[in-house]
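Hello,

I think I submitted the zinc ion job twice by accident. Can you confirm which output corresponds to this input? Input:
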Amino acid sequence: MLVEDCVFCRILRGEIPSDKVYEDDKMLVFRDIEPKAKVHLLAIAKEHFAFLSDADERGRELVSYILFKIPEIARKNGCADGYRVVINQGADAGQTVFHLHIHVLGGEKLPW
Ligand code: 5GP
Ligand code: ZN
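Support: Only one job matched these inputs. Its output is below.
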């Protein structure tokens, strides 16, 4: 189910444009509007889950599905030499969009 005032649900409904790099029946990957690396992708489920910490069984299946699609998507989008996968969970991590999303950062040597 999608949520009315969620920015990523709005992207899924096509109400906000996005630079899509991959889509299937379960997930969407698009470019972050404020990239923190040369390549910065966001991978989301086509269902609304706010947090990793409250994903139910369906959410867990989707997160796993998305996670293991990422290697191929990253390789095809300029991250053949490596990339970082990040999930910001909650306030201390600076989560700003409460629709679970997986950041894929790469395209350059990343500082740690
Ligand atoms: P968070 O800090 O919640 O893990 O990351 C949210 C990310 O979503 C941020 O990197 C931010 O730049 C990105 N973002 C927020 N609004 C939009 C939008 O409307 N379009 C796109 N493409 N990215 C967005
Ligand atoms: Zn949402």
